Amino acid sequence: MFSKILIANRGEIACRIIQTAHRMGIRCVAVYSEADANARHVAMADEAFHIGPAPSSESYLRADKIIEIAKQSGAQAIHPGYGFLSENTGFAEACEANDLVFIGPPSSAIAAMGSKSAAKAIMEKAGVPLVPGYHGDDQSPDTLRKEAEKCGFPLLLKAVAGGGGKGMRVVERMEDFDDALAAAKRESKNAFGNPDMLIERYLTQPRHVEIQVFCDQDGNGVYLAERDCSVQRRHQKVLEEAPAPGLSEETRKAMGEAAVKAAQAINYVGAGTVEFLYDVDGSFFFMEMNTRLQVEHPVTEMVTGQDLVEWQLKVAWGEPLPLEQSQVKTRGHALEARIYAEDPDQDFLPATGNLRYLSTPDESAHVRVDTGVTEGDDISIHYDPMIAKLIVWDETRDQAINRMVQALEHYRIAGVKTNIRFLHALADAQPFREADLTTGFIEDHRELLFPKSRLDTHKALVLAAGFVLEQRKSREVVSTDPWSPFGRQNSWRMNSEYAQPLQLQVGEEIHDLKILERDDRYQVFVGDSVYNLTARLDDDYMQAVINGHRISIHGNLHNDQLVLFYEGDTFNCTVYKESYGFEEMAGEGSLAAPMNGAIVAVQAKVGDQVTAGQTLVIMEAMKMEHAIKAPADGVVTEIFFLEGDQVSEGAELIAIEVEDTEANQEEAG
């Protein structure tokens, strides 16, 4: 077995690989960019080498530097993880040329599946069912337009070299085809260096079911059950589970055998995933093959009891597969939720910030957390915004869902926006519990997945006041006289009962509270209502009783920014001080950047007449494009950035002189 390997990756997958390698007695070499100097994977590795600046193109994608460091460190093999260079044919070839074992498939297999159009041709020859569409080499717009008409609508434009939802567009009608094609080509070229597209019929109610396959160097292959990854947004998986609910044993076997046949058709070695679209009538079609370990591999590990990274290392060393097909058994049900730094209320815009507070559920045989971050780390614009993967297991699907809901309630983050509340609503939604799954699940159930807060505003404000006051008490300077009121921070006054004021800002609204403190309880006045409150704070955990209702919450107060966590829900507010001087970052007729990122395209000029909803700027952040649209009808008066410029969240991009609609109507009258 290898004695030392290099891990050409970062974040949670690097940490995941290190854990198994260390358990097997293998030393690990990490690489890190300037942004990751203090990252968790660096601390976990036996040794680590600086590889370049923060942008991945200058660090984690530098194959030459990684090869050089591997040789310098004495590593015998390189594990690419997923993303970055994991499916890069040139990198696999470079490893082979430098006598380094690439812990993955042969470069020929990566090349065969790297082009989605070529992969379709191979699968068709191997007898694997395909979705109707166009996978040809002629990429002229006229040809693609004609093939789109043949295929019919709705259709899916997909980057030939793509993955992760990038370079992909659903087109509902011919009128939208040209714009969608241009955007998909541009995004594909930026992400993969290849703008070529393939076209597929877009199935309206499909499920995304994938098979975990494994092959050894002797040509043996097995499948380790399947995963359902239907719950997606922007073609990126959000919640995965194994096994796929409602799949018959016959279909499971047929899919598994087709997946192994697909892998053996390209002389595959190692871990791979064959992805299928599963239609309502029980038919399934080959979609693509990922020639690497998948993000969602832990759910397969939880139901099979196997360590897939260990399998990868053994197969790469030349050992046979640990199990034959008849020995592969599954037990129970597992789910994985991807916890992202993003804002679901703003169309899942990627978020950046500091993880100033991070509390995760306790790990056990039922709960697993795969992460590459710790409290205090920054989520930057340079890499994928995934914070962690939360994986749960139990005997049945219903029990596993209950585990997931509970674990999400125990996952608490402050300092950066996350999708935890959204995931909680998703896992707890009745259609999900009933396994009513399609790839359009999120769009079909938006009202269920974006529920109102479980806490009414008044009750949340009372709890916030209790948290603020109790934390102030815990930080009071202890007086030499423990009974003296003069050391307290409750605005105590001699010979009078004084209600101390507290202003809490929620969004744009400022709430004026008044609080009387009496012995071990408070009276909190909010508007015309009075609440009797008792509260006890222990670090971040507060037990409170409001008018006889006992509630337990967690919270984090930092620089007057307070976040409360309650049953998967969050309540954010600011302890308001007028001296703060809250100001608008941009005027009514301006476009402000919704996130940190780069300007990809400016689609307007000074003097242009624009209409509300018209795309004026395209930004790229977290490797995805985002259209910034005009907020109202008007005329462009200034443009502050050019294509290629980096901008910060809140920066004014374009100024628009907004039309006065009422005045125009009066003139017209």
From TrEMBL:
Record pathway: Lipid metabolism; malonyl-CoA biosynthesis; malonyl-CoA from acetyl-CoA: step 1/1
Q: Which cofactor does it need?
A: biotin
This enzyme catalyses:
N(6)-biotinyl-L-lysyl-[protein] + hydrogencarbonate + ATP = N(6)-carboxybiotinyl-L-lysyl-[protein] + ADP + phosphate + H(+)
Function per UniProt:
This protein is a component of the acetyl coenzyme A carboxylase complex; first, biotin carboxylase catalyzes the carboxylation of the carrier protein and then the transcarboxylase transfers the carboxyl group to form malonyl-CoA.
Recorded GO terms, molecular function?
ATP binding; biotin carboxylase activity; metal ion binding
Protein name stated in the entry: Biotin carboxylase
Q: Which residues does the UniProt record annotate as the domain Lipoyl-binding? A: 580-657
Top-rank taxon of the source lineage equals Bacteria
- What is the taxonomic lineage of the source species? Bacteria, Pseudomonadati, Pseudomonadota, Gammaproteobacteria, Pseudomonadales
What PANTHER family does the annotation carry?
Answer: CARBOXYLASE:PYRUVATE/ACETYL-COA/PROPIONYL-COA CARBOXYLASE (PTHR18866), METHYLCROTONOYL-COA CARBOXYLASE SUBUNIT ALPHA, MITOCHONDRIAL-RELATED (PTHR18866:SF33)
Q: What are the UniProt keywords, alphabetically?
A: ATP-binding, Biotin, Ligase, Nucleotide-binding, Transit peptide
Q: Name one Pfam family in it.
A: Biotin_carb_N
Q: Which SUPFAM superfamilies match?
A: Glutathione synthetase ATP-binding domain-like, PreATP-grasp domain, Rudiment single hybrid motif, Single hybrid motif
Positions of the ATP-grasp domain: 120-317
User: Which part of the chain is the Biotin carboxylation domain?
Assistant: 1-447
Q: Summarize the subunit comment.
A: Acetyl-CoA carboxylase is a heterohexamer of biotin carboxyl carrier protein, biotin carboxylase and the two subunits of carboxyl transferase in a 2:2 complex.
